[in-house]
Design goal:
This protein is mostly helical. It has helices at residues 2-27, 34-51, 57-70, 75-82, 84-97, 99-113, 135-146, 177-185, 187-209, 214-229, 244-249, 253-272, 278-299, 307-319, 330-352, 363-366, 382-393, 396-416, 420-430, 433-447, 463-470, 476-511, 515-531, 539-554, 593-613, and strands at 450-451, 457-459, 556-557, 560-561. Helix content is 63%, strand content 1%. A hairpin with a 2-residue loop joins β3 and β4.
C-alpha cells in the first residue's frame, strides 16, 4: 500500500521536474544539447515505468523462488553478506578519511551496534536504540531509515515483493503466510544487511562530523551507504534488467552491476579522467588499490574482478594457434606455477585467498572474477557444451529447472534401488540452500566421506568440515579435490578427443584410398607420439581401431549397430519398414553372419599386409612412423 501511496504523492513533483528539464533543454540557445536530451529521454522512460509498473506475477514469483532457493535461510550467505564492509566499505572510507582512522571508527561502530541492550526480533540488533550513541547519532540513523537507506523491517526488496501490485490481492492485517515465511527465511540475509548499513553510517558520520556540520555528516553517511551497499529497489534497477524476461535472466546481477561500476568509476577517475581534480584522482587511486588488495587477500588471484572473462578471452586467442591436444587452461597453468613457486598450500592461498588455510572455503563466495556469468568448467562437445553455455547465460532459474529434473531422477532411482546416497542427492537438488547444505553434510556422514555418483570413495572429511558444510561452507579440501579432478578430466577428455580424431581420419583415409589424407595422418601420428609417448599411437593401435571400425560397419543393419550378444534386441524395432521404394522385402539384400565374418577377415588381411609393406608394423610399441605411408 505504501508503494502505491508514494507514487501518488510524488507523481506531480516528478512529472513537473521532467517537464521543466524538457523546457530548459528546448530553450537552450548555445552548445550541444545531445547529451542532456539523452538524459531527458532516459528519465521519461524511467518515470513511466515507475508510475505504470508491468511486473508479471510469474516474474515476481520467480524472483521469490530465486531468493528462497539461493539465499534464504543460509548462514553462509549471511556471513558472506557481512564481508561487504571490510571488502568494499573500508577501502572507500580509508581513501577519504585515512585507513587507520577508518579502521578505528568501524571497530567502535561494530561494538556499539552489537550492544546486547538493542536486541529485537526484526533485525536482531538496532544501534539506534543503544545508550552508547548520542542523540544526534540516533537522529541520523532514524533519518536514514526514513529515507530508505537503512531498512529495519524488510529485506531491501531483494525478494522483489515491493514491485508487485499488492492492492490486487486480498489484504491481510499481518500479511499473507508466504510473506511470513519469506520474512523468516530472509532473516539470515536481512540481519547482516542492517548491520552493514548501520555500522557504515555510524563510522562515516562520526569521522565527518569532526570537521563539518550535522547536515554535511548526514549526507556523507548516506553517500557511503549508497556507494558501498547500493540500492536494490526495483526503481533503481538498470532498465535492461527491468523487463519481465530480463529481470529473471539477470537475477542477482544488480550487485554485479553496482560493484562493476564502483571498480570502473574508480579506475576511470584515477587513470584516465583528466578533468577530475588532483584530490579526486588521489582518492580514487587509493580506493582502487586498496579494494584490489583486500579482494586479493580474501579470494586470491582467481577472485580478482573480471580476471575470469579477460583471461578466458586471452586463452581462447592463444589456443587458436595451438594444436587441439596442446590447448591450455589458464587457471590450471597459473595454479601449477603458483604451487611450484610457493608450495601447494602457499599456491592455494595465492590463488584462492586466506580461507584456504582454514577448513572452509570462502573463495567461491567472495570471488569477483565472474561477476556477470560463469563459464562452464567442463570440457564438453556439441550439444552438451552448448547447453552448458545456455544454462550459464540463463541465470539461476534455468539451473533450478535442471536441478529439479536431476533431483526427481535421483530420488526415483534411489527408491527403486534402495540406494540412500542417490535418494539424498535428489533431495539436495530439490531443496533450498539452507536445507541442501544440511542434507549434504548428513550424506557425508552416512557415506563416510565424499563419493562420486557411482559411489566410489573420493575423500574423507572430518567433523569440522562436516559442520562447515552444514552451514553452507564447502570444505577447502573438497573444493581443491573437485578443482583437481576437473583439471585432470578436462585434459583427459581433450587428449582422448584428439587421439580419436587422428585414428578416425586415418581409417577413413585408408578406406577411401585418400593419399593426401594418409600423408597428413602420418604427420599427425608422429607429432602426437612425440608429445604424448604414454598415449602413443602404434601399429597395434591402428589395427585395433581399424578392426573396430570395420566390425561396427559390418554389424550395422537398418541404421543401428548391435554387438552379437545384443542381436536379439533388433526385434524391438521390427515395426520400421526400411525397404526401398519399388522393391519387395524379399529383394532387400541381407548380409549373413558368415558373409560378415569373411568380409571382416578379408579386410583385416588387406589392412595388415598394407601396414607391413609400409613398415608401420614394428616390434616396439611406439615404433617411429615414416613420413611417407602412401600405398
Amino acid at each position: 500500500g505504501a508503494h502505491h501511496i508514494s507514487r501518488i504523492d510524488n507523481a506531480d513533483f516528478l512529472a513537473n521536474a521532467v517537464a521543466s528539464l524538457d523546457e530548459r533543454i528546448t530553450e537552450t540557445q548555445e552548445g550541444d544539447v545531445t547529451e542532456p536530451r539523452q538524459v531527458y529521454n532516459e528519465l521519461v522512460l524511467r518515470h513511466n515505468a515507475i508510475l505504470n509498473p508491468n511486473t508479471s506475477p510469474v516474474a515476481a514469483w520467480l524472483g521469490q523462488l530465486g531468493f528462497t532457493m539461493s539465499l534464504a535461510g543460509s548462514v553462509a550467505t549471511g556471513i558472506t553478506n557481512a564481508s561487504q564492509v571490510p571488502l568494499v566499505t573500508y577501502p572507500w572510507l580509508g581513501a577519504r578519511y585515512g585507513f587507520t582512522r577508518a579502521a578505528a571508527a568501524l571497530s567502535v561502530a561494530y561494538k556499539d551496534f552489537l550492544d546486547p541492550h538493542t536486541l529485537n526480533t526484526d533485525s536482531l540488533f538496532d544501534a539506534s536504540k543503544s545508550d552508547r550513541l548520542t542523540e544526534e547519532e540516533r537522529g541520523m540513523l532514524r533519518e536514514l531509515q526514513e529515507r530508505g537507506r537503512i531498512d529495519l523491517t524488510q529485506m531491501m526488496d531483494l525478494s522483489g515483493r515491493a514491485s508487485q501490485d499488492n492492492l490486487s490481492r486480498v489484504a491481510k492485517t499481518h500479511g499473507s503466510m508466504p510473506d511470513k515465511v519469506m520474512k523468516v527465511l530472509g532473516f539470515t540475509f536481512h540481519a547482516p544487511e542492517v548491520m552493514n548499513r548501520q555500522v557504515t553510517a555510524l563510522a562515516t558520520f562520526r569521522m565527518d562530523r569532526r570537521d563539518h556540520n550535522y547536515q554535511h555528516a548526514l549526507q556523507a553517511a548516506e553517500q557511503a551507504i549508497i556507494s558501498t551497499h547500493f540500492i536494490y529497489t526495483q526503481e533503481n534497477r538498470p532498465r535492461y534488467m527491468s523487463g519481465n524476461v530480463m529481470r529473471v535472466l539477470s537475477m542477482f546481477k544488480q550487485y554485479s552491476q553496482h560493484i562493476a561500476f564502483l571498480y570502473g568509476r574508480s579506475a576511470q577517475l584515477a587513470l584516465t579522467n583528466t578533468q577530475a581534480s588532483p584530490e579526486e584522482r588521489k582518492v580514487a587511486f587509493k580506493q582502487l588499490v586498496s579494494m584490489l588488495g583486500i579482494q586479493y587477500a580474501a579470494a586470491g588471484a582467481l577472485g580478482l574482478p573480471f580476471i575470469g572473462g579477460v583471461a578466458s578471452l586471452f586463452t581462447i586467442m592463444m589456443n587458436a594457434f595451438r594444436d587441439d591436444d596442446d590447448e591450455i587452461d589458464w587457471q590450471v597453468e597459473l595454479r601449477k606455477h603458483l604451487a611450484d613457486l610457493a608450495g601447494k598450500q602457499g599456491g592455494e592461498v595465492l590463488s584462492h585467498g586466506l580461507s584456504r588455510l582454514t577448513p572452509w572455503d570462502m573463495s567461491s563466495r567472495l570471488g569477483q572474477s565472474d561477476l556477470f556469468f560463469r563459464a562452464p568448467n567442463r570440457e564438453r562437445e556439441g550439444r552438451a557444451a552448448f547447453m552448458d553455455w545456455v544454462t550459464s547465460f540463463s541465470g539461476p532459474v534455468m539451473g533450478y529447472a535442471t536441478n529439479a529434473y536431476l533431483g526427481v531422477g535421483d530420488i526415483t532411482k534411489g527408491i527403486k534401488e534402495a540406494n540412500t546416497g542417490k535418494f539424498m542427492r535428489g533431495v539436495e537438488e530439490l531443496t533450498p540452500a539452507f536445507m541442501r547444505n544440511l542434507v549434504k553434510s548428513l550424506r557425508y556422514e552416512m557415506e563416510g566421506g565424499v563419493r562420486t555418483r557411482d559411489e566410489y570413495k573420493q575423500l574423507d572429511v572430518n567433523h569440522a568440515e562436516k559442520l562447515g558444510q552444514m552451514f553452507g561452507f564447502t570444505p577447502s579440501r573438497v573444493a581443491e579435490m573437485y578443482e583437481s579432478v576437473t583439471a585432470i578430466k578436462n585434459k583427459e577428455h581433450q587428449l582422448d578427443m584428439s587421439r580419436k580424431a587422428i585414428l578416425d581420419h586415418y581409417a577413413k583415409s585408408y578406406q577411401t584410398q585418400d593419399h593426401v589424407g594418409l600423408q597428413r595422418s602420418a604427420a599427425d601420428i608422429k607429432a602426437f607420439n612425440e608429445k604424448h609417448p604414454d598415449l602413443a599411437i602404434t601399429d597395434k593401435t591402428l589395427k585395433r581401431s581399424f578392426s573396430s571400425r570395420t566390425q561396427r560397419e559390418a554389424l550395422t543393419h537398418d541404421g543401428v549397430y548391435l554387438s552379437k550378444k545384443r542381436e536379439s534386441l533388433r526385434q524391438e524395432g521390427d515395426f520400421a519398414n526400411l525397404t526401398p521404394s519399388g522393391e519387395t522385402p524379399g529383394e532387400t539384400v541381407q548380409h549373413s553372419k558368415a558373409w560378415e565374418q569373411r568380409e571382416k577377415r578379408k579386410k583385416m588381411r588387406e589392412f595388415t599386409e598394407e601396414l607391413r609393406q609400409q613398415r608401420l608394423i614394428g616390434r616396439h610399441r611406439a615404433a617411429p612412423l615414416p613420413d611417407d605411408i602412401l600405398p
